[in-house]
Amino acid sequence: MTLTAPAPTAVDATLLDFHDVAMTFPNGTVALHGVDLTVKRGEFVTVVGPSGCGKSTLLRIASGLEHASHGTAELSTSRIGYVFQDATLLPWRSVRRNVELLAELHGTPRAEREAKAQAAIDLVGLGGFEKSLPRQLSGGMRMRTSLARSLTLDPELFLFDEPFGALDEITRERLNDELLRLFSEQQFAGLFITHSVSEAVYLSTRVIVMSGRPGSIVGQFEVPFDMPRDPDVRYTAEFAELLGEVSHALREGHGA
Amino acid sequence: MSAELTEDTTGDTRVVKSVRRSRAGRRGQGPARIGLWGPPIALLALLVGGVYLLHALLGERAFLLPEPHVVFGKLWDPKTAPDIWEALLHTTTVALVGLVIAIAIGVLWAIAMSQAKWVERTTFPYAVMLQAIPILAITPLIGFWFGYDFPSRVVVCVMIALFPMVSNTLFGLQSVDRGHRELFQLQGASRWTILTKLELPAATPAIFAGMRISAGLSVVGAIVGDFFFQRGTPGIGALIAKYSARLNSAELFASVIVASLLGVVIFLIFGWLGRRAVGQWYDFG
């Protein structure tokens, strides 16, 4: 993987570029095979697939936590945010101190990181909870804290590993809307992993369908709905039709 | 601990209050406290009554079981009390010095093992062996090497109290959540940063749990040392040996009770310290 300076002038610049990526684990499991994938500025790409299809591995390679055993994975920015499946908050730190953590690890001066943390906390609607400990928060609030923590890095590319998978549907839908709002306001690109087809279609500008064993891409769909997205788009016939097509591709891929 | 919670009036106080309530319930206040302390106190009363009964039944051999008020009288009797309290102070000093050394060595050793796998592979078996060595068997050897005074007593305490510190700290450092570790890795955090900002804070509950076990063991070590090392100020163990040899049963009971209470008090103090340190985010037993 190579790290190069971002090119700020190019509006459609590619932030992430996977070329023929394969991943074979030491025990012989083939997690990914022949994956080509790009994420450009302004895009919100969702990868949907059954559990165990290697979609998390895809994200781990993108972030540098794992290295592809074949092919190239090029990342054109160093400002990446990574949101894990769990909120991964440090239980002994308050919301504020958790949100400050990443800036602290980068050696940002105290005053600056406090200001950044406060801005991020306000952005995710957690104002007033700065002093609360993670155990005092609901699952949705913990995930908001986790989002705020990544936002302090001003990421150009946001990687999400099924972040709302453990939440109830009401909280999940609310956080989906929050995420769309942040996407419109903050101008980051997103690569979002999920196993929910409706979440995938609702959130993204492009949906990628993966099948398992070995994980490979079996379909891609452009999502035509405007951003910022109207929540009611979910109840239109076009949305339902796209949902059907994605689901169909998932089933086909699974059968193959 | 509650100080920080009360400050939080700007936030959603409902959340904070509910946490406080559940915590109060767990600690046992009001009626809950009676439920917590009532049964053991009732059992104690029953036992004390039983002792009086047995004392009366033993007749000529009643000296085997002195009456509780006589035993407790010894703790205020000007003839015996100064000896007992001074011995207790000495034993406490030995136990605490030994404990502090055991904590320091234990935590540093565990950190070394967590940082380098080869240190763990090479030395952890010996930590386990330390645990398996019968302390009574090597106590004479310790006297032989370090003399029969204060240093030897401390060495016995360290040897007996070290293992729980090592194993608990190591367990704490190694049980760090994988997601947390990756969170730090993604930011390119150094080993030192990971140790100080992640592993050590995460290990604090385990370290305090280890301290509580080690504190009790250190008291045992101080008393065991007394039986073997007769030089210097005698501790409570030396007094127990003396009273036992002279068949001073009331004095013997009094010093045994004092030694036991020392263990209990130290256990409670370290439990309290643990709750102070991590109780806000961890249910420290």
How many separate structural domains of chain A? 2
Distance between the termini of chain A: 31 Å
Report the uncertain regions of chain B: 1-26
State the CATH superfamily name of the largest domain in chain A. P-loop containing nucleotide triphosphate hydrolases
Helix count of chain A equals 7
Structure notes:
The complex is a heterodimer of chains A (256) and B (285). By secondary structure, chain A is α/β, with parallel strands linked by helices. Chain A has 2 domains: 14-79 and 156-255, P-loop containing nucleotide triphosphate hydrolases (Rossmann fold, 3-Layer(aba) Sandwich); 89-154, no CATH class. In chain A, 36% of the residues lie in helices and 24% in strands. Chain A has 7 helices and 9 strands; from the N terminus they run E-E-E-H-E-E-H-H-H-E-H-E-H-E-E-H. In chain A, strands 5-6-7-3-8-9 form a 6-stranded mixed beta sheet, with helices on both faces. In chain A, strands 2-1-4 form a 3-stranded antiparallel beta sheet, covered by helices on one side. In chain A, strand 8 (206-211) and strand 9 form a beta hairpin. The radius of gyration of chain A is 18 Å and the shape is globular. Chain B is mainly alpha-helical. Chain B has helices spanning 2-7, 13-27, 31-58, 68-74, 81-115, 117-132, 135-146, 150-174, 178-186, 191-228, 236-245, 249-278. Chain B is globular. Mean pLDDT of chain B is 85; it is low at 1-26. The interface between A and B is medium-sized, with 27 and 30 residues.
Keywords:
A: 256 residues, Rossmann fold, 2 domains, 3-stranded antiparallel β-sheet, 7 helices, 9 strands, 24% strand, B: 285 residues, mainly alpha, 81% helix, 0% strand
